[in-house]
Amino acid sequence: MAKTSPPIALFASFSGAGGVERMLVNLMRGFVDLGRPVDLLLAGTDSPHLARLPTAVRRVDLGSRHTLTAAIGLARYLQRERPEALLAAKDRAGRAAVVARRLAGTNTPIVLRLGTNLSAAMAGRSALNRWLRYAPIRRLYPGINRIAAVSQGVAEDTALIAGYPQERISVIRNPVVTPELIRDAALPCPHLWLSERRDRQLPVIVGAGRLQRQKDFPTLIQAFARLRRTRPCRLLIIGEGRARTALEQQIARLGLGADVALPGFQTNPYPFLANADLFALSSAWEGSPNVLTEAMALGTPVVATDCPSGPREILDGGRFGPLVPVGDAVAMCDAMLRTLNHPPDRQTLMAATGDYTQNISAAHYLALLEAERLKPA
Questions:
Q1: Total-model pTM
Q2: Cis peptide bond upstream of 283, omega within 30
Q3: Residue 121: beta bridge partners?
Q4: What is the distance between the alpha carbons of residues 71 and 100, in angstroms, rounded to a whole number?
Q5: How many CB atoms are closer than 10 A to CB 149?
Q6: Hey, is 120 helix, strand or coil?
Q7: Dist. CA 183–CA 374, nearest whole Å
Q8: Angle of CA points 299, 304, 308, to nearest 5°
Q9: Which of 18, 142, 191, 304 has the most CB atoms in a 10 Å sphere around its CB?
Q10: Alpha-carbon span 174 to 67, nearest angstrom
């Protein structure tokens, strides 16, 4: 009988329908495709993405809904199962993993996956708030064996904030492009503006993400208002969040109600991306924006802010789509107009996302975990 490979231990909190949770499920599916079962160590179980877990993933409830307080349950797991290495997802999970390993008295290598440009997210906060956020990172990150950052920008930001050695940080692209993405994108789009009965004379621009400050949809709406003076077009922003009322008020104030729609959260956003004439990313900051990669993987032209971090890397410095300054509605308008008038080759865009496929990303993580396992204690 062939020996079964030991499971990958992955520690994460699943809360909501966010992109991080979706990427983690993609990553686990990639592990399983490559013949590795997974123990998913959960500090939270409130996410629709958990329904997509393959049967080869064993869910282990750590008995706490909060990442940091799950350290005791994680310590028990480390003592009992003695995994070859532990992959922790997001900052709090990494810090809790360091505490859990101390409690367990094991020497389990810890690899931390980070997907946020933290200094950009903390910009504008008070010095005290920044200190409270950064101090635990600087105290506990030395106990992490290796960090996997989703972009070079996140890697550089992490090294700066945490004082963590750059040589112990690897960049591994997100597992964005999956067989599900291609399949689901081929389904009919439920919105009339992008359906088979659409008006082909009216190009449709799509934005996507949580309706919150990070995504800076007010700038996208301002840019669209300028663009519409030049040529007829429409704008769809898919997603939900606390900023909905403010965005609706802005749309009404600019007289855009007939040409801008906020259809809310979409279980399957991919037909929107696949059928759009243009995808626009207006974010103030990112780690590595998955939706930008998804749009390109589907052959949809894109424009993006040159925010920290990710878009510049994904677009190869502007080779695959224009990069514009954050918060600049005039530059965003001009970029959208140029791209609508002269769209790039679809096959070129699709080929540019090769490093972001599910199994390639999973293989890189497996290699990193294996390298840490083989290092002398």
A1: 0.89
A2: no
A3: none
A4: 5
A5: 25
A6: helix
A7: 38
A8: 125
A9: 304
A10: 22
Give, in order, the Cα–Cα distances in Å from 176 to each of 14, 26, 132, 221: 18, 7, 33, 27
Tell me how far CA of residue 44 lies from CA of 83, 278, 282, 307, in angstroms: 21, 36, 30, 30
Q: What is the pLDDT of residues 215-229, one digit of tens each?
A: 999 999 999 999 999
63's CB contacts (< 8 A; 6+ apart) are 70, 72, 73
Beta bridge partners of 11: 41, 88
The string of DSSP letters for 341-377 reads HSPPPHHHHHHTTGGGBHHHHHHHHHHHHHHHHHS--
Chain position carrying tokens 């791209």: 339
Q: Is 15 a residue whose pLDDT tops 80?
A: no
- For position 29, what pLDDT does the model report? 96
**Distance in angstroms (rounded) separating the CA atoms of residues 373 and 7:** 13
3-state secondary structure 138-196: HHHHHHCCEEEECCHHHHHHHHHHHCCCHHHEEECCCCCECHHHHHHHCCCCCCHHHCC
